Amino acid sequence: MSHNLPSRPHGDIRVQRTRQRLRAAILELADRDGYEAITIGDIAALAEVNRATFYRHYEDKEDLAVDVLVQVAAETGRMAPILGGSAPVDLDSRIESGERLFEHFARHHRLYRPLLGYSRNRRFMMRVRGLLVPLVRARIDAATDGAWSPREWPPTSESSTPREAPMPPELVPVFAVELLLGVVAWWLERGVPYPPRLMASWFIQFLFPGYFGVVGLEHLLPGGPQTEGPPPHET
């Protein structure tokens, strides 16, 4: 999926350091002045690079903000995956991981509220979806060795409701990402009325039974059936 992003160099440690400085710069500037007031020149000056260097890495400041969010989400997942993982769920560590993510949104609310809030930036949202959805899909694939498909619904043959067509696999991570972005938008628009840890706990409480059930990973839930691995998938 293309979002007309520039081709970014990868691998070179100098490149990674430059991008790290640019990410730090937009966060500092947004915290101080608000996202709307930031210019490319401001970012480049604070990161101690020239504008040409900025444009070798990012198309615009929205592109840089997307990279900030995706990097934070990826790092949070590496520390303790909120979604996925191949071992039984350590609920405390997942809540702590989610807490770090919500803390990031709260700390940098002047960056994220105009981008994720109800007056959201549509281009930013498209870019974020285009990168976070594959990230969540990769978590599911890693937890199942790629051998999964959404469960049929209703779940029992005794139900009087006719079974519907199974959910397309590509829709599962979309539901998870849209839930996260919607919850964060609601939270930021209301001035962060609840602490990050409580938001993380509620998010996981709401998401996990349905999300893990849909992809057939009930055995990874706290108190779920203890098995050696994912249940066999019908072919």
Automatic annotation (TrEMBL):
Chain residue ranges for the region called Disordered: 146-167
Keyword hit for Disulfide bond: no
A GO molecular-function descriptor: DNA-binding transcription factor activity
Keyword set, alphabetical order: DNA-binding, Transcription, Transcription regulation
Stored Pfam families: TetR_N
Entry superkingdom: Bacteria
UniProt keyword DNA-binding present: yes
InterPro entries: Homeodomain-like_sf (IPR009057), HTH-type_TetR-like_transc_reg (IPR050109), HTH_TetR (IPR001647)
DNA-binding region ranges: 39-58
Residue ranges annotated for the HTH tetR-type domain, each copy included: 16-76
SUPFAM superfamilies to which the protein is assigned, alphabetical: Homeodomain-like
Gene3D superfamilies found in the cross-reference section: Tetracycline Repressor, domain 2
PANTHER family: HTH-TYPE TRANSCRIPTIONAL REGULATOR BETI, HTH-TYPE TRANSCRIPTIONAL REGULATOR RUTR
Protein name as it appears in the record: HTH tetR-type domain-containing protein
